[in-house]
Amino acid sequence: MRGAVWCVIAVVIMATVSCSPVRGNLGGSQTTPGVLVIAASPGVKLPLEAISREFEALHPGATVHIFYDAALNLRQRIAAIENSGRTEIGSSPVHLVAPAVDELLTRLESKYYVLPGTRRAYASARLVLVVPESLVDAPESFESLADHPALRLAIADPQQTEVGQMTQGMLTSLGLFDSLTGRLDRAVNASGVLDHVLSGQADAGIVLSPTAAGEHERVRIAAFAPDQGYDPPVHSIAMSRNCPDRALCEEFLAFVQTTRAQAVLKRIGYGAPSEHGGSARSGK
User: Fold this and answer.
1) Are 194 and 210 in contact (CB under 8 A)?
2) Starting at the edge strand that comes first in sequence, how are the strands of the sheet with 96-98 ordered?
3) Could you tell me the pLDDT band of residue 229, with boundaries at 50, 70 and 90?
4) I need a labelling partner for 218 at 20 to 30 A (CA). Which of 5, 28, 45, 203 fits?
5) CATH assignment of 4-124+234-276?
């Protein structure tokens, strides 16, 4: 049981394709000085790679390798930890673990697979109301949606997507969901919401802030949702129990909460973790 999680991480490293800023190749259990290896969920690719590039720019001797796999999905990961019969895989070069959900890190900490006390929240996302750049008379708040009775609103399907469930919870908490039901345009996912808005099928849409930032040339954020009725996603990273270079890990973990790192994340639509319970630190 003690080594089950490292079995999964080893599979992640051997089975996945590296993505920028990944460079080089892992050679067995060898650890190259200045190389930081992160096993991560695909859901945090955008913020994690942005921070990694900035970290490398600030630390010319450091190289960050990130390996992605859906096995770091919460359900798959927990199932692998609890059900895997393999416990011996030898040493692993993984330094840090960055899943998309904090619940996973809590579980890993409880089993001492990541070091307690090393978790750092580095990014958060909020629901936002997006409209085409050409729309002049746009709602200025979610509460004002009631003042635009002809407005068609695209949302991700609450029955099929997590962002849709967040959207429904937030609108319900504002007392708006039932009144908007007749003019809600359900899309299969967040990308579908943007497609519906840009095609004119809907006048406005609700997505998470990083999704909106990715299309900033075609849509604009008209309003930020209040933090009620849903839990804004917060992304964290922690040091693996067998990290081969704790000094380098600690340096990266400290960097992700600096003002420099947070400025990079803000440009791609993420908020500081301090907005939802974390803290940003000053830094270069």
Assistant:
1) no
2) 63-68, 35-40, 96-98, 234-239, 120-124
3) very high
4) 45
5) 3.40.190.10
Domains 4-124+234-276 and 127-224 share a fold: yes
Could you tell me which residues come within 8 angstroms of residue 244 by beta carbon, excluding any fewer than 6 positions away?
A: 31, 91, 93, 95
DSSP 197-249: HHHTS-SEEEEEHHHHHTTTTTEEEEEEPPS-SS---EEEEEEBTT-S-HHHH
What pLDDT score does 28 carry? 38
Query: CATH classification of 127-224 is 3.40.190.10, yes or no?
Result: yes
Tally of residues, the chain: 284
Span 199-223, pLDDT tens digits: 999 999 999 999 998 888 899 999 9
| pLDDT 10s digits, 145-199 | 999 999 999 999 999 999 999 999 999 999 999 999 899 999 999 999 999 999 9
Boundaries of every domain in the chain: 4-124+234-276, 127-224
What are the two backbone dihedrals, phi and then psi, of residue 110, each rounded to the nearest 5 degrees? Answer: -65, -25
